[in-house]
Structure formats: C-alpha cells, structure tokens
Amino acid sequence: MAEGNLDAIARACRVQIIRMLTHAGSGHPGGSLSVIDILTSIVFGRLRHDPKRPDWADRDRIVLSKGHAVPALYTVMARAGYFPESQLITLRKLGSPLQGHPDRVALPGIEAATGSLGQGLSIALGMALGLKLAGSPARVYCILGDGEVQEGQVWEAAMAAPKLGQPDHPLDNLTVIVDYNKIQLDDFTAKILDLEPLVAKWQGFGWPVLEIDGHDLAQIAKALDAAEATRGTPTLIVAHTVKGKGVSFMENNPEWHGKSPKPEEAVTAIREILGVTEMAWPDYLKTDATTRAVVDELRALDKK
Amino acid sequence: MASKASRAAFGEALLELGARDPRIVTLDADLSKSTMTARFAKAYPQRGFNLGIAESNMIGVGAGLALTGKIPFVCSFACFVVGRFETIRISVAYTNANVKIVGTHSGIAIGEDGYSQMGLEDIACLRALPNVPIVQPADELETRQAVAYAVEHQGPLYLRLTRQNLEPVCPPDYRFQLGRWLTLRAGRDVTLVASGGTVFNALEAARRLEADGISAEVLNAASIKPLDEDALVRSATKTKHVVTVEDHSIHGGLGGAVAETLAEVLPTPVKRLGVVGFGESGDAKGLYAKHGLDPAGIATSVKKFLNR
Questions:
Q1: What percentage of residues in chain A have a pLDDT greater than 90?
Q2: Where are the domains of chain B?
Q3: Which of A153, A155, A173 to mutate to test binding with chain B, by most B CBs within 10 Å of its CB?
Q4: DSSP string for B54-67
Q5: Does the interface ipTM go beyond 0.90?
Q6: So what's the architecture of A3-303 in CATH?
C-alpha cells in the first residue's frame, strides 16, 4: 500500500484511539499513539491475514507484548474488518471483548493474552518455531515496549531466539520491534532504569539490529523489508518514537502514559491529529461529517 | 508391575505417544535428564527443545508452540516451573494455550537436596487458575494413562510427578478419568484421601488400622482439580470422618480442596496431613516419618482424629 494511504489510515486510527479512550474513561494514550504508525505499516502494508478466518493456520501473527497499547491494535483490527468500528467505544466496558489488555479468548484475531509485561517475546518465539516446524510461510511480528525490556524474561527470550531452531529451523520468520518512546509509567526510562546501550545489548545477544524513526513510514517499510529478507536469524528493529505522537500536550509527557483525555481535551487532540487550526476548526467540521459525528459524540459525554 | 518413579513412567509414556502423535514436543530448562524427557529429545531431535535455565521463557515458548498446533510438554522440577506462576497465569492459562505443564520432584520425598528443590506449594498456586486441571498419578500404570489423557485434553493441564519410586496401587484394568477418584479400599469408619506418592502409604496405614479395629476407606485422588465430589461425598456420608494425605503444604493443596468442598456440601470433620512449614534435607524415609506421612504416622494421626 502506498505511503500516502498508510499515513491517512494512521491518522484515522489516531482519531479512533482518542475517541475510544475518552469513552472508556481510562487507558493508555501515550503508548498507543507511539506505536500506531508501526502497527498501521504492518497490518495495512504487508500482513498476510484474513479477518474472516482469524484461525487460518498460515496467517501472519502480531504479538503486542506491550499489551497496554491495545487500543492502537483494536483500531487497526476494526479497520481491517475483524469487528465493526462502532464497537471501539465499548473498550473496557463490562461484557465487551475489547478488554483493557488483549484477551485472545474474548476477541478472535488477538493472538495471545499480553499486558503482563515481558511475556510476549517468548510466545512469539514459540509461534515462529511452530510455524517453521510446520513449513509455514507465515511471519510473526512482536512489539515490545521500551520499559518492558527491563523485564528479565525478555532477556531470556533474547538469548534464546538466535539459537532456537538452529540449524534447520532458524527463526528468520520473526521480526521484533521495540517501540522506544523513552517513557514508562513512572517517568522517563532513562531516569527509572536506563536501557542504554540498547542496540549494543541486543547485538551482543546475537541479533541483527536496525534503528529507525518509528513515525517515518518509509523507514518503517524499509526496515520491515530488510527483516523479511534476512535469513538465518530473527531481526530486531529499534524504533525511536514519541510518546503521545500527534497530540501536542501528550507528546513526551509521562503524565499521558495511563490517563484518558476528557472530552474537550479529546476534541483538541483530534483537531491536532487532523492538522486543523483552531480558527479553521468550525468550518472544517462542516466538511467532514465523520469527524463531526465523533466530536458530537464526545461532547455528549460531557453532558452525561 | 514393579515400583517406578512417575517421572520415569512419564518419560516412557511420552516416548511411545510421541511415535504416534507428531504434535507432541518437549521443552526443558536444563533438567531433561531429571524430568526424563531426554530420551524423547534423542528419539525426536526436531521435537525436543532445551531452553536453558530460563523457565519463564520455556513456558512462553511452549505457549507459542501450542498456538501453532503443537502439544508442548514444558518440564522442570515442580517448584521451578510453577514458580514462574505469572507466566503460566497469562501466557498459558488466560491465553488458553494447549500447554501441558509437568512438575517433577514434587514434595519432601526428594530428600537430600532440601527445601529449595521441593515442590510444596505448586498445587496451591495452580488451583487458583480457572482452567488448569491438576493431575497427580500414584503409580506407573496411572501415570501412563494420565500422560495419554494429557495429550487428548484440550487446554492447559498440570501433571505433578515424583522423583521417588512408587509401588503399584491401581488394578490392571484401571482407566484414568479426569474428575474421577478410584476407591482402592472400602471402609466404614474413616475416609483417607491420598494422592501421588502418599497413596501407597495410606493403603499401608489402612491395613494397620484394620488390625486396631478401624475400617478405613482409601480414595486415590489422582484428579486434584477437578476433584471427584460424588466419590468424596459418598464416602464422607458413610464414614463421617475424612483425612487427607499429601506430600505438599497442608495449605491450599488436596486437603484444602477437600475441606472447601465438604464445608459447602457436607460439613464433615477433616484432618489434613501434609507438610507443615518448610521442607529440609534428609533421607526421604526420615522426612516422611518426621512429617507423619509414613504408614505409622498416618495411622497414629487417624486414631487421634477418631479419638481411638
């Protein structure tokens, strides 16, 4: 898919992230906005999958190990057709399959329960190995949070991955991406437990590592291509990102790791995501019925 | 059948089942010689994986393999594998991955290695997970059947095995069923509910009690979760006294499960025999005597419980 289209999809997904989190009244906007360009690039740029057959044996798989960013995954899943976009605002509500963190049993298309940090890479390794053993052409994408990399299990998996399945079934069907947005719940990662030198650490464990701007769609595509072309080993992509990307008051602010915007803040966020000035906003809403409906729905929340 | 450790019977059963079912794979964390999967890995080198001393990763890799259609047996000492409870909780249980968790070296019966190697709280941990059945076979025959059942069972399952040899206790025509207990000996005065390595000792205790005029019924609780409520209630209705016997902490194990069930369904006096406090180094026989899990100790506790 052309980059222009991916850019438009990512922008639309950002709007949906803000919308659903505001309706939910809780959740994690910062890490959802930092990872959405990566998720959009995978799902709409290359993923071989069929929303009508979420159990298709040869589907590519995404393991969102940083499960708190699942609103981002829900927006791309809805857009891809796993469930209607209208269901997005049931996020975190009683009875909804859109659980606060990914639930594989509740929502077909989710590949593993994650969100208890540090576990997703191990699961992705097992999937990649199982697919290789079965002779499947499918790929596995695993997305780690940067703070998550502080978990010990990640390094158990990191040590095992370049060795597992060798020599007949190397895990070159596995692409791992670190969403390096530099912020975790309590504060900046550099202040809590600095990950640096992150690239050298993974290289020391035997991984080829690519470093990119995780919001530059061309760079993301190029890195995913390179990972797919690599033989004999899984690949790690360190994607430098901005937490809260696209919303000025959320960007690089640890406060927005885990709180949802109020309806008025959400409307401002959506306006910024769409790149419309405050002056032009009333006129813009007259021309964009979809956004107008989202905004009206959000403003109605204030009156509840 | 001669006496055999359930870990050994497990290793042999898996080797046989593996020939018929290519979905079966084993994962180990540097203890495959002890968990007895080494022969499987040697026979099927593409299906036996040693992940090194990294149990959390082993469990997660097992979950991933299960999600691509394999039937992974993730194996270690009971304390080490269940010690990675949070990974079991999310990657296996909540994900509903078809992973078979195998904990060998359960209980104080491992002896000399001491407490840090003894699985004594594994049942208590896993009982709290909604979708993980817990199976503890009592002899070679039952182990073979339990392993075959684990392959057939859709979803996670925990198999609790022993390091020490187990004497045969089940009849040759015995067939394991999840949620069903076998009455090994009928009795009127007291029900002994035992599981795994303590079943033989409970039977021996029942024989001693008979000499003292006490008629003890012995149930083999191989299926700890779900337990066999029908068999338990039927026996407790008759004897009105229940004693549980297990090589596990007295908190949260078989005794806890039996007490919880009876308290709700048929309030009955229950005496729990098991391990109190931490384990320690020593010979297995001496440890069982110290904790009252040998035939003499069980018989003494039963008599005290019955005021006889």
A1: 98
A2: 4-166, 182-303
A3: A153
A4: -HHHHHHHHHHHHT
A5: yes
A6: 3-Layer(aba) Sandwich (3.40)
